[in-house]
Structure formats: C-alpha cells, structure tokens
Amino acid sequence: MHHFDYVDQQILLQIREDARKPFSQIAEDLKISNSLVHQRIKKLKKLGVINKAEFVVDEKQIGFKTKSYVGIKLREARYAEPVVEGLKKIPEIQECNYVSGHYAIFILIYAFDNHHLRKILYEQVHQIDGVAGTDSFICFDTNFRRQVSLDFLAKNNSYE
C-alpha cells in the first residue's frame, strides 16, 4: 500500500494543472523546499503514479473532424492480442481497451471526416485477422474531459 499525504496530493494537483511548471515554483506555491518537491516527484514517478508530461493537442484544430468510438467483435478470444498488435499500427487509433460485454475491444479513432473513418475501418481494421465485425459510435461533441479525481487522496490518504 502506498501512502499519499497532503504534500503528494498538492504536488499532483500543481503538475496536473501545468506539467511544465518549474519545481521551484511548485515549492514556492506550497511553501516547501525545492528538494522536497524533487524527492516527491521522483517517488511518484518510481511508483508509476506519474508516467509522463505531455502537451494536449486539440484534434479539431489540426483537421480531425470525426471522432468515433468503435466496438470490435472478434472471431474467437484467441485473436485478442494479435488484433491489438494490428490496431497499434493504425496511427488514427488513439486508444484501445479490452472491455466486457458485446465487444471484446473498444477503440477511439480520430479521422479527418466520415469518408476517412470508413477507409480506416474497411481498409485497415477489418483487414486484421481475427476481427469479426465493428460497430461505430460517432461522437458529435465532447462535453467535458478530465483526469481522474485526486479527492480520494485527501479522504483516504492511501492508495493500493
């Protein structure tokens, strides 16, 4: 069990707001030492809590006007891993998840338009050995997007 205290929570809140924020500024804002910030971030990285810092690109601003969630049915369960390996080769697929229910895999695709989405599905996804079929769910708009809440840290002060 990993314990996260108030300082860990506050550091996570600060870097989630701006991953480029200098450690010295975080230390100043939290009224703690710069070395403590470095130690805590190093610990959080080692634990896998912090994986990377990245810029968030607005897909619409660079021309991807169609966003679609796609459920993938497999011919048999044994095809799951090879299908995922095939999906990794398609750059328009931004996310891939094993799921329960009617589908075995759910993916998120950004395409330039519906025609481009059709090409991705018919000429790439459906050509992967083991894919039995797909159902697409066009996303008209994203109402909000957020990261996982950090409130549980303050309430539980532990993480398993």
Helix percent band: 25-40%
Dominant shape: elongated
Number of continuous helical runs: 6
Radius of gyration: 20 Å
N-to-C terminal Cα separation, in Å?
5 Å
Strand order of the largest sheet: 2-3-1-4
Summarize the helix and strand pattern as letters.
HHHEHEEHEH
Q: What is the overall pLDDT average?
A: 90
The protein's oligomeric status is single chain
Structural class: alpha+beta
Structure write-up:
This protein has 160 residues and is an alpha+beta fold. The protein contains six helices and four strands; from the N terminus they run H-H-H-E-H-E-E-H-E-H. Strands 2-3-1-4 form a four-stranded antiparallel sheet. Helix 2 crosses helix 3 (34-46). The N and C termini lie close together (5 Å). The mean pLDDT is 90.
Short description:
The protein is of the alpha+beta class. 36% of the residues lie in helices and 19% in strands. A hairpin with a 6-residue loop joins strand 2 (93-98) and strand 3.
